[in-house]
Amino acid sequence: MPQSGNPENTILIGDMLVEIKPTKLLYQRNRTATLYKLLDIYPLADILAMEAGMFGDDRDGDKAVYDWLVAVTDDEDLIRQHYDSMDTDTIERMLGIFKRVNNIDEKESRQKKLQATAKV
Question: Where are the domains of the chain?
Answer without folding.
Answer: 9-114
